[in-house]
Amino acid sequence: MSVPDEVAFVRAAQAGDPAGLGALLVQHRARLHAVAASMLGHGPQVEDAVHDTFLVALGSIGSLRDPAAARPWLLSIIRNVCRMQLRRPAELVTDPAELPPVPSGAVEDSIEQAVLRDWVWAALERLPESQRLVTVLRYFTRASTYDAIAEVCGIPIGTVRSRLNAARLKLADELLRTAAGTHSDAAVHQRRAADVGAVMADFERTGDRRGLREVFAPDLRFSLADRIPRQGLQDYASALASDFQDGISTRLINTVAGADLAVAEMWLDSPPDHPRHCPPAMTQVMFHNGHTTRRIVCYYAHQPPPEAFRRGRP
Predict the structure, then answer these.
(1) Which of 82, 157, 170, 194 is the most buried (most CB within 10 A)?
(2) In the listed set 143, 177, 211, which residue is the last one of a domain according to the structure?
(3) pTM of the predicted model, to two decimals?
């Protein structure tokens, strides 16, 4: 690919045409793989780094000021991705004050670019549900460690790794294959998730359960912090109402949504006289049919140790 061709592809991608970015990444894929192998050694983590670079580039193409510098830009991204892999801590973050934000430059950062947003979600929807869920958790939420994903999905960590590897390969292929196509409006799903959030906020504020019937199935399946499987909207509403009456409140952090699942992340604030009443944060995955939520799976951040509260930390 000549420099003029690269410039044209970069400008097309920055204008919202995903085909340009797709062509650029195909051209440099082998070189990116070589750089990752030189830093990480040979193994599955190399392909992880290449596909993570693909996703970061997708979210940050607008920040490339010089279209002729696409090659060094991509190489700098993969080097940073590899460095992050090398120093990524193995332990879960347990203090909500230390939970990282959703990474800058991730796919979600491109959500305001409608064409790219719809392209990404169209590709995600083509993944099997098991692969789509681990991908959404990994790239769009704070429940992104292998341990957290394993807990949400109820699977071993090794299965998380294998599903992510399969999902990365398929997602990259789907993004490239569908780059020139037309895609459904992903904002529709985001608006539905916002509507569900509004219903939940109203229930927390007023205790009125009527709105819940509009967005949750009567036989809703769910589990809460005790991880006991339960079923029934009335039981779900009663459990939440009990927590709210005890003084627990929620603060929404982040919402992402697709055609059949949505993820809501929130802080959980315990009452001052019982600061360990509930876990400090929650990632909630809601499976729906486009109209009503039929199943809820939750991941709760680990409680900080008791001495953290004696130091005055939340």
Answers:
(1) 82
(2) 177
(3) 0.61
